[in-house]
Amino acid sequence: MRPRLLNLLCIALIPLSCCRNAGDGDPAAFVNTRIGSGGHGHVFVGASVPFGMVQAGPTSIPQEWDWCSGYHESDSTVIGFSHTHLEGTGIGDLFDVTVMPVTGDVVYARGTKVPAGASSEEAAAAERSGLWSYADRSREITGPGYYSVPLTRYGITAELTATSRVGFHRYTYPASDAAAIVFDLENGGCWDKATSTHIEAEGNDAVKGWRWSKGWAKNQKVFFYARLSKPFDSIEDHGMYARINFRTTDGEQVLMKVAISPVDIDGAKANMAAELPGWDFEATARDARTAWNRELSKISIETDDEDARTVFYTSLYHTMIQPAEFCDVNGDYRGADGEIHRGNDFRTYTIFSLWDTYRAAMPLMTVIHPEKMRDMANTMIKIYEEQGKLPVWHLWGNETDCMVGNPGVTALADILVKGYDGFDRELAYKALKDSEMRPDRGQDLRMEFGYIPADKGFGESVAYDMEYAIADGAMAEACRFLGKEEDLAYFTERSRSYRQYFDPATLFIRGRNSDGSFVEPFNPYSSTHRADVYCEGNAWQYTWLAPQDFDGLVGLYGSKEKLAERLDSLFAARNVVEGAESSPDISGLIGQYAHGNEPSHHIIYFYTMAGQPWKTADKVDEVLNTLYFNDCNGLSGNEDVGQMSAWYVLSSLGFYQVEPAGARFWFGKPAFSSAAIKVEGGTFTVKAEGLGADNRYIQGVTLNGKDHPYPYISFEDLRKGGELVFTMGPQQTCWYQPE
């Protein structure tokens, strides 16, 4: 396909010293960073290292939904290169410390895009309205750890690479007596506004300062320290902009390092000294690519399908951009209480999109990043100590409370029950329980009525309650793991609150009032974004949002067979969403199964749990091959900080964790003949013998050479290493005895 060929061409154009070929163990060569840069994918395109604090990349003029990452394939404007970006979110923020190389006089503003159908005079006025330039996307080069693009207005080629805390820029200028780099501290991401900015020179080759802002993150503080490879002639103050002036000869390269810190300027300076003391751009780009290859090589696959290989490694790449490190090299960080916490012995992280990622991205992390579990758990526990509850959606030290439920409980409980240590388990349990028992965000109503009524002034009542029930299920697993029998009974019972919403007459989950009556009128296809009882979904999707209580769902329908029949109707329903203000997040429809949004992600695997695994295989195969592909539009919804891609990674390996903190991965349909996963105990190999277009059904399973009569594999078996072999064939069969 054209985007794949273009990406390979771009990678080939990177200086040869920056990369190796795939045959030398270079899985980064198969990453197409543009997948998800179209549609509503909202992915970050730029230079970073795995889980790094810095995401150095271009920021465009539009401040709209599809520019939440600062980049969209439909628009080639660049207002500058920012050092923080979000990966695939549905809300925009960050874009901190933006720098733009320029020549000549400019207007110190974001500028306005040339409107469609503009006259030549209108186009010229728009082009003079700010710092911005068009980027020549035909010569854009993008790959893991490296980004380059020509800026047509100025005749400057910009190149970027990064360490975890430092963005490294290389600008190739034309001859100019009015060359400059402009620091833009005004413009952030979409709804972000600067509240305090400062910049000053340090000598004649460095500048330092800060940018504080308010947006999705209500009190974000970023400090920076920047050095240039050549002295500058002067620095000009233009309010929230500063212009660094120098002269250039034709083809002269000016390098700049920009270190950031959430703590202070001294922290940024120390980060630069530790991570990037020199000026070797090529070596830094090589190191960034090496870091990506080290992480991407944690899973190796065998396939003759080059597009599938690209989608797989791009998906794996997307799962490792964030969460992002959120501490200086000495361990200092800014806490959720706004205070500076010094010298921690673990790395703190931020950008926790937990409503999305507790479903697949965080479970995937427990498998392939065991070395990070101590840091993740301790970070969440510290957030609890600093703000009184576990994170909901944490962004640069700020609790946004975005999305519904208690997803931090589910994520931390999952780490706990999988046996990871390096943190205080009793303190973790206290954090879990205290977070679950807070009488806010609808929990007070839930405790009073046994569910959240729709008529008590609390919006998205069904969604909040059902997500709280999922967290209760995870809490129950934590109780079971730690032997908290009394709490186990309580949270197990509370995890069933969703049953109050089930209407046996319609077989749907519906909103319910405080008097027990169902909300009328009712249309299962209807959605009103942020203004009905669901959240980014409708009754079709939310009827299945009980992965913590599959047996309870079976009980509601009467049998596994009847549940499977009802599942059939989900996929056979009309693939339309009704309502003038319907949620744009309900996307990637197969019938009313909405793969483009997270509440649907576990549903396909219910077929395996119901004793009809061939239907799981069929649907997994359909999703893998139609809703993920090697193109800028190759995602069916927002990337959501790795969740959309994590579903692909796990499902293509042949399994998926359905139950929250359940530590079981249910079988579906592997996409590759062989995969080797580096795990804590060594290597876990997955083989699919006889896999083919017709042979897509599991006929039998062995684990370490012995029959495996179960439709799942436990996390303990995964983490130890070993060999899982699927025998594939054309028969729609159930090789295990359904419970």
Task: Please describe what this structure looks like.
The strands form eleven sheets. The protein has an eight-stranded antiparallel beta sheet with strand order 6-7-8-9-16-13-12-11. Strands 17-31-32-36-33-34 form a six-stranded mixed beta sheet. It is globular, with a radius of gyration of 26 Å. The model is unreliable at 1-23 (pLDDT under 50). Helices cover 28% and strands 22% of the residues. With 739 residues, the protein is an alpha+beta fold.
**Terminal-residue CA separation:** 45 Å
Largest sheet features: 8 strands, antiparallel
The total strand number stands at 36
Major beta sheet, strand line-up = 6-7-8-9-16-13-12-11
Q: Report the structural category.
A: alpha+beta
| Proportion in β-strands | 15-25%
Number of helices: 20
* Rg of Cα set: 26 Å
Gross morphology is: globular
The residue fraction in helices comes out at 25-40%
Low-pLDDT residue intervals, each spanning 5 or more residues: 1-23
Mean pLDDT: 95
From the structure above, extract its key features.
739 residues; alpha+beta; eight-stranded antiparallel sheet; 20 helices; 36 strands
In short:
The protein is α+β, with helices and mostly antiparallel strands and 739 residues long. Strand 19 and strand 20 form a beta hairpin.
